Amino acid sequence: MAYNSAFNPDALPAHAEPEQAAQILAQNQQNHQTHLPAALRPHSNSTSSTPSPYQPPSYQNKPPPPIPPQNLQQTHPQYRRQSPSSSSLGPSYTPTDRPFPAPSPNHHQVSQPYTPPLRSPPPPRPATTQPTAGDPSLFPLFRAVDKRGTGQLTEAELRTALVNGDFTSFDAHTVRMMIRMFDADRSGTIGFEEFCNLWGFLAAWRALFERFDADRSGRISQDEFATALLAFGYHVSAPFVGLLYRAHARPGAAGLSFDLFVQSCIGLKRMTDVFKRYDTDRDGYITLSFEEFLTGECEEFCGGEREC
Description:
elongated; mainly alpha; 10 helices; 39% helix; single chain
């Protein structure tokens, strides 16, 4: 058993502690965020001049009305030019008959302004601007897989963003495990900042995967899997390594893909946490009732959530 060896079971490597790794990555992300510059404030002008008072236009020098053209006097004989008088300022025109009909009685009434019909406002559109938190280089990828444009990735949308080295999609159980680990607000979806934390977490696991992939095949064989567990501090027997390996390997596949390697290691870490809860003296042996055993199994497979 792992607890009967000289190794300290509580001193597991940081990369084998997914919850601690996620917290460390989140703290590093906050420390490297750049603050937005303060908004520029307009400079106040204390020496502005006082505006001059309003001067109404003068109508003293209004010019006389123009003389109608000659053709208008010929076609319309009702207009006859009068001889100028000494008291008038210019020629005057006295129509003998009203050339235009009289205005209607309601001609000078003010009409009511047009009131458009009331319409329900359109539904708000989600913001397409880049969030201030998170890695800006990951926002184009996040927006590309966010097909609904809500700013939150569902399990199906997140699965399209997570691929293995051979461009195969992540296993559905691995994607659900990632959502349970990084869904900080328990919404069942992944926001942009949560997506950045998840991406950094998988990048650290990718480096471990390439480290233990000795033959550079893109998959972890059973011998390479045993080496990885030993490096993580798990001193278990070869039969158990084979059992754990076969439980996560796909039938007919020549090794564990990246997503299944992460799934198996995190699953082993969770089972270890359940065991350590009851192994108070750290001797590698516990005594459990049937209900305590079922409780530990539910916490392992359901991830502590209400729905499995």
